[in-house]
Amino acid sequence: DGVHCAGNESSVDNCLHQEWGQSDCKHEEDVSVVCSLDTDEIDILGRKNTPPIEDVTNNLTDDILPDDCGTIDEELKYQTTDFTPKVVQGKEITRGTIPWQASLRVRTSIKSIHWCGAVILSPLHILTSAHCLQDYTKSAYFVRVGDFDTEVPEDSEQEHDIETIYIHEDYSKGLRLSNDLALILLKGRGLQFSSYVRAVCLPPAGTVYVSGTNCTISGWGSNGKPGAGFSRRLKATNVPIISEPECRAPYVYGDALSSGMFCAGDLQGGSDSCQGDSGGPFVCPINDRSVLYGVTSWGHGCGRPNKPGVYTKVGNYISWIRNKIHDSLNG
């Protein structure tokens, strides 16, 4: 599979060519998620009153994580609608209701294409899946934020080159796609926040993931139909967190699941993410904030029974994320 097409090209010549590397046409390029928990007492990282995590060197990290993380404009707050059962048949969202959604893109000889999802943590920092950054050199990638319709230029869009990529040191060691996380430092002064570009909040370290919690995944990924390209417009859907015993069942994923992963969706099939959604946010509303609980990682197929989407458990990686942000600002 040496050629990668988004589905919008007028000619196969406009697709990614072999010299770029090998593309990955599996379900490993998935999405993001927003969950609902009845936890009124949870602190949210990124706010100045949050206690330090494990080390005392993260003053720079506290300073750059926005106080108003996980919020959207008041006029947009009540325009959100219920989503259809799965992203592959997902419902278009109201523009601006997921302002932390980013697109990791790849340059081609003609134009750029959407490659993976990503999520905004600060004006300078983007989180995504490590496997999304394995195929090309750093210069081939860039980040777009503030986008809604990928085929229509919008005044909210910003595009930024990448200064540094931090891949988790234990990525894919032991179990395949374990520790599937990467932090991106943007070049220059970074993002200009607006109604359409904002940061998500980080959860506390060791956050408990409650089975049945209803969550929202979003992205420009495929609708799951054979030969389908990526979606033009940003879509989203709700999926529930699945318990660890259910996800580790032999007929689901068995021993392929590490402690840094969790799965979400419908074991009957239907609710799922698909190609092009990897690296996007899995976000839960807590205390009127949207909090990043996961990053879309992998799965088997799209919407298949007993094969739900698998997500990197962000709550297990808070120290790593904060320390990498600190390192990037000290570099």
3D structure, described in words:
The protein is mainly beta. It has two domains: 33-71 and 200-315, Trypsin-like serine proteases (Thrombin, subunit H); 98-199 and 318-330, Trypsin-like serine proteases (Thrombin, subunit H, Beta Barrel). The chain has helices at 59-64, 74-77, 244-247, 318-330, and strands at residues 33-34, 91-92, 101-107, 112-120, 125-128, 141-145, 158-160, 162-167, 182-186, 214-219, 235-240, 261-264, 281-286, 289-298, 309-313. The strands form two sheets. Strands 1, 2, 10, 11, 12, 13, 14 and 15 form an eight-stranded mixed β-sheet that branches. It has a seven-stranded antiparallel β-sheet with strand order 7-6-3-4-5-9-8, covered by helices on one side. The longest helix is centred in the C-terminal third of the chain and has 13 residues, at 318-330. The model is unreliable at 17-44, 46-57 and 81-90 (pLDDT under 50).
H/E topology pattern = EHHEEEEEEEEEEHEEEEH
Strand tally: 15
Distance between the termini: 38 Å
Count up the helices: 4
Low-confidence stretches: 17-44, 46-57, 81-90
Structural class: mainly beta
CATH-derived architecture of the largest domain:
Beta Barrel
How are the secondary structure elements laid out?
Blueprint: E1 33-34, H1 59-64, H2 74-77, E2 91-92, E3 101-107, E4 112-120, E5 125-128, E6 141-145, E7 158-160, E8 162-167, E9 182-186, E10 214-219, E11 235-240, H3 244-247, E12 261-264, E13 281-286, E14 289-298, E15 309-313, H4 318-330
Parallel strand pairs: 1-13
Antiparallel strand pairs: 2-11, 3-4, 3-6, 4-5, 5-9, 6-7, 8-9, 10-11, 10-13, 12-15, 13-14, 14-15
